[in-house]
Amino acid sequence: MTRPDTETKHAADVSAMFDEVSPRYDLINDVLTVGNDRLWRIATTRAVAPRKGMRILDLAAGTGTSSAALAAHGAHVTAADFSEGMLAEGRKRHAGNDLIDFVWADATQLPFDDDTFDAATISYGLRNVSDPRKALAEMRRVVKPGGRVVIAEFSEPPSALIRRPYQLYGRHVLPRVAGLINREAAEAYRYLNDSIEAWPDQAELCRWMRGAGLDRVAFRNLTFGIVALHRGFVSKRATDHSTTDTSKGGASQ
After folding, report:
1. Of 116, 117, 148, 202, whose CB count within 10 A is highest?
2. Tens of pLDDT along 113-163?
3. pLDDT band at 165 (very low <50, low <70, confident <90, very high)
4. Residue 10's pLDDT is what?
């Protein structure tokens, strides 16, 4: 497996990596997070607040596990990803669910019209995008005024007592365990850990979201800040999709 560069994050390299690990990706995540990924998914679903009749974009949806959680509330979900392997696995697993459509998409150039969705969400995928700020602007563009954008992403635990053991786990334990489950996954999870360590902290991501034009941006930490859940809204007063910049930080929800 070719390990993607965490600085360039070329789409072809990252998508090829996910193609190779797609069959056992969800199992590996369950094991490596000791089941916490399920709790994080519940929190993310609640933040999106899906309901019957809503149209939701689930970006970097992978095999559709998060999409199925949203669709369980009656929402129609467009599960978008740039890994054909992940999409193929998702279509197979959710073949009988008419509320989920799997679509190939580049997060920086979404193939959807303005104001298409009632909400958009991305879980653990924004840091794998070559230009995450452009992806945020695209999410804002395709969400209707008044709609929300929800981001679940690995982050920096505020406490050094948690941060140091977490870093050691990510660098040394995570790739070895992943490799035992799937030989091809060891390099993938070394890359994923590197991308987590290079990712900005919670306040900086809030600034990026505001810079993309989102309002009422806030975050809350999950599991001691190992994961942070960010949320912002598209202004009901917005009349265009131009972006603004700001240097203000974020506040905990």
Report:
1. 117
2. 999 999 999 999 999 899 999 999 999 999 999 999 999 998 989 998 988
3. confident
4. 54
DSSP string, 81-113: ES-HHHHHHHHHHTTT-TTEEEEE-BTTB-SS-
Q: Are 234 and 146 in contact (CB under 8 A)?
A: yes
Neighbours of 237 (CB within 10 A): 8
Structure tokens at 28: 């590996």
Are 48 and 121 in contact by the 8 Å Cβ rule? The answer is yes
Residue whose token pair is 């995008």:
129
Residue 110 near residue 138 (C-beta atoms within 8 A) = yes
Q: How far is CA 224 from CA 23, 33, 157, 162, 167, in A?
A: 30, 13, 6, 7, 13
For the chain, what is the radius of gyration of the CA atoms?
17
pLDDT, tens digit (0-9, with 9 covering 90-100), for 26-82: 655 665 676 788 999 999 999 999 999 999 999 999 999 999 999 999 999 999 999
CA distance linking residue 100 with residue 90, whole number of Å: 10
Give the other-Cβ count within 10 Å of 191's Cβ: 21
Q: Is the pTM of this model over 0.70?
A: yes
> In sequence order, which residues have a C-beta less than 8 Å from that of residue 242 and are 6 or more positions away?
213
